[in-house]
Amino acid sequence: MSAVSGSLWWRALVDKASAPYARGGRIAGHFARGKLRWDPVFRHLLEHGLIAPRSRVLDIGCGRGLLASLLLAASGEAQGGRWPTEWAAAPDDARFTGIDIMAGDVARARTALGDGAIFVCGDMRSVAFPAADTVVILDALHYIETLEQDAVLLRVRRALGDGGRLVLRVGDAASRRGFATSQWVDRIVCLLRGRGVRPRAGRRLAEWQARLAALGFDVSSRPMAQGTPFANVLLVGTIGPAAAPS
């Protein structure tokens, strides 16, 4: 494995991961590049090894499949012997399934990545979840009501085996200004994109942590709003052998 600079290498990786979206036009390509480069969660997932090699990944609310494209590009880099030595192990050969309710986004994901990943158009509240080693939900649960969130999380827990991991980004409603800003931006984006959904239910960080703990997750949290005005927090929940859903 050759030594590479994390920052310079990251920019090149983003270029590779966003390139497939140029098939949908320049705007689609620019959107993918900007989202991958400037949203801190994507680099964090790779740098800290939150998606293990050869894991089965389920991305709920996957949008255009940007995470899938990033994992494919990262796997190619690792197999070519290029990976930052200070980073955790690369997510080599991860198997990806993405679920999203927006048919247009699912179509864009399929056009960009072909058979490199599986994409399902469906509602997280009712679509079947395959067995997974890692479930990723980024900025999606606040589009459904609180009881529906609980039902989705219970089904996620059942899809994860011992040692499974949930990576969940949420807005902390206890941070009033940042949370209100994210809600306002979400509403504008939904309006501009013609989405028939809007933000519905948020929770305080402590409430999210308690809900996950009740499901048997060992939970840690880390801020995930660097460079943005939002109140985003990344929750990482792991399942031990004695945990059981409740």
Describe it.
With 246 residues, the chain is of the alpha/beta class. The chain has two domains: 1-129, Rossmann fold, CATH 3.40.50; 139-246, Rossmann fold (3-Layer(aba) Sandwich). It is 41% helix and 20% strand. The chain has eight helices and seven strands, in the order αααβαβαββαβααββ. It has a seven-stranded mixed beta sheet with strand order 3-2-1-4-5-7-6, with helices on both faces. Helix 1 (6-18) runs antiparallel to helix 2 and helix 1 crosses helix 4 (66-79). The model is unreliable at 242-246 (pLDDT under 50).
Distance between the termini: 44 Å
Please list the strands of the largest sheet in the order they lie side by side. 3-2-1-4-5-7-6
How many domains make up the 3D coordinates? 2
* Count of alpha/pi helices: 8
Radius of gyration: 17 Å
What fold name stands as the CATH topology of the largest domain?
A: Rossmann fold
Quickly give the structural class: alpha/beta
Largest sheet: 7 strands, mixed
Shape, principal axes of CA atoms:
globular
* Helix-strand sequence: HHHEHEHEEHEHHEE
Overall residue-averaged pLDDT value: 89
Poorly predicted runs = 242-246
CATH C-level category of the largest domain:
Alpha Beta
Total strands: the figure is: 7
How do the strands and helices of this protein lay out in sequence?
Layout: H1 6-18, H2 26-38, H3 40-47, E1 56-60, H4 66-79, E2 95-100, H5 103-113, E3 118-121, E4 132-138, H6 146-159, E5 160-171, H7 176-193, H8 205-214, E6 217-223, E7 232-239
Parallel strand pairs: 1-2, 1-4, 2-3, 4-5
Antiparallel strand pairs: 5-7, 6-7
